[in-house]
């Protein structure tokens, strides 16, 4: 199958080890300092992702970017796909590759699988060993045998559907992978909601790009998630009686943060 091109998200280069393995002069352990750098590095990656998702010209490109970025940003993820809720029921919208596409499609064909449960119950599901999985035995055995998938994780994307992550034999998602998967799904849900709200307001694509840049700056500077960053813009707009797009343009231009009362 062919996949649509989308803006590229790359894992950022690891930050340099400023402590060089030693304790700092103020008594802070080197491992603690490294942890802070890693956390800032990850926040920057997610801010970059939100900006790219916001700049996507339509929902199809946005979803393709999300699944491709999932494979790049989740350490043990080899394939990813997204299943969307629609009036006619669930359907596989986009995937990172043919394996992710087929793994999702088989769930719909067989009437069992994690993304069906997640889309209904909105709970994250993880299977460490599909060869021994008993919740969806027929589907799990088939994707394990035919597609070489060893483990999976399915994460709700608010009410839109489910983001499914797949790993090859011998790979198992850990708590960090689950946390990153959750964050990507949460950001995607917020951006989709924001994009639809922007569509409702009749704003052009260039406005989406500017708002995405402003959200990314707010996420980095104020340690916010995407939802709170957009809410920040709305509150500033309301308090100052200035259009949201004008607030976003000023933040994107100057990187200066307006103050909330």
From TrEMBL:
Entry keyword Transcription regulation: yes
Provenance organism: Nocardioides zhouii
Keywords from the named record: Kinase, Transcription, Transcription regulation, Transferase
Record-linked Gene3D superfamilies: 3.30.450.40, Winged helix-like DNA-binding domain superfamily/Winged helix DNA-binding domain
Pfam short name (any one): GAF_2
N-terminal signal peptide: none
Domain ANTAR: 191-252
Single GO term (MF): RNA binding
Protein name, entry field: ANTAR domain-containing protein
Sequence segments annotated as region (Disordered): 1-31
